[in-house]
Amino acid sequence: MALPPPFRPWLTVVCVLPVLMDQIPGVLQKCIYDEVQAEVRKVRLEPATSQGRGFYSQRLETNPRVGASPQPIRIHTWITRESDNLPEAERRRVMMAVEEGVDKVSSLLSVPRIVGPLLLSRDISKYCKFVWSNSGGANSNRCGRANVNYRNETCLDVTIPDQHLSGCYIYPQPDSPYRTVLRAEGSGVSDTDFLLYLHIGSTHKCRAEPDVWAYAAHCQTDTDGRPVAAVVVICRDRLTQQTYKHQATVQMVIHELFHVLGFSKDLFPTWTDCSTHTHGGAKCSPQKTVVRPDGSGQLRIFSPSVISVLQKHLRSSEPELGGLLENLHVSPGRGSSHWEALLLQGSIMTAVLEESSTVRIDPLTLAAFQDTGWYSVDLGRAQNLVWGQGEGAQFGSVSSCQNRTSAFFCSGSGLGCHFLHLHKGECQTDPYLEGCRIYKPLKNASECWKKENSVRSPGDKLRVEVWGRDSRCFFSNLSRHTHFPVDSSSVGGQCYRHRCTGPNSYQIQVSGSDWVDCPAGGTVQISGYQGVVFCPDRRLCLYPDVTPPSDDEDTASHTSPVQGGTWSTPLTNPTMVSVVILLLL
User: Fold this and answer.
1) Where is the composition biased (Polar residues) (predicted)?
2) Residue 99 catalytic?
């Protein structure tokens, strides 16, 4: 009996994971990262000079990637004063989600640590009315006259405190050492490699874009181009919903952090190549053009680790197999800061993210960070993507779904299983799939691992299915009816127990049955039932990290003490860096 063409339902969000999980399928959460980043003026940190102390006087004596062993990036998160007006429950839930997201990113990305306190630069075009441009003068390129309207430095409308900023000075004469202090040198932020300014509120963009849950932008980079400061704005109204989901918000934070740390079309041209380093202190050199069009004109990231990881994932020897970038709502040749959904469905960096248990911090995303030249990444910490595994170089094209050459796609509008087999699904599409259809989790009671769904599933009136932690979704047309022939068109997704007996080898158990072998890629009949169960090949018992979330993973059950405006929670992993969330004064 042939398996009918796959069909999937979907509940998806754009860019940031939806905090609401009971939305009508088809309603997307919008990511406006590229739009927001384009509005932000970036400042590059300057090495220390006679104008001020600065931490870079220590760091730039030798190349930091040669002279220092990379360590987990230390991210300090500062919450704006305006965000402090949140009710206690809302504040606690968002702080826990932010802290968990920051911890996760810190455990994945390592950098040569900054020596001394992190001190951001001021924008000379803001505080200075004119600059001495005579190349031979002692004060060449220094400020000659102050802008009387200068007030402060901002990043995405968040005011950066003076104590985080270097000083700025005015040199009234082109050759005189005499100077006046416009702003004194700040103390900087200790033990920090990246400053994250967090604002929670109902901003203009939140009000104007009801489908936006959060947005972010980086605003300062170091002398090698690595971002060192950014703002993440979380729309406050999204925190008050009764169906708020903790893990969805954690993934939202991770997604936005990945953008501002380097996964950005604004930063792709500044990725560096450190592969030819010697220990002589030479600087990393800019990579050749990282993003360029493929044969069809769609932009891809062509960098060494990305190509290697994608070749391994698709089992292809194609030498120029770059990471495909999203092309929806993108002007020709302009690129995007998201992966193409057809190629990398389920990745944390696609523009559309599904229900949180189906989202993966995938190998290709971590490979991209490895290729920035700024980070050391243990690719072994990536989560298995599963989507497209072993499908060849043509996977991810519209033709691969239209020609039905891959079982990952479906047609029609029927019921089945999400490709991770944790959820029942319905065959649907979204704008990012370009007409292709995949099985997306059902709106209600899709999770096979939730035992309580056994009383919520109207399609299992005869109690064929079994829900629980070890249950997975199987295509099946099993029925207890014995007086009528089985209709093969009734195949759909059903939840049965499973247990692994080896790699890609497992047994299943339906309601009232014994454990029976389910041959991967074949079918099995169950004594006492009509119909068959289709046994998925290379989807079960191969990926140890594809599991249901833990019981408390989506409930913010732990609390963080508040002491003098500082939020600090001990980490369970002692090798991870500590994260301190401080009140912006």
Assistant:
1) 557-567
2) no
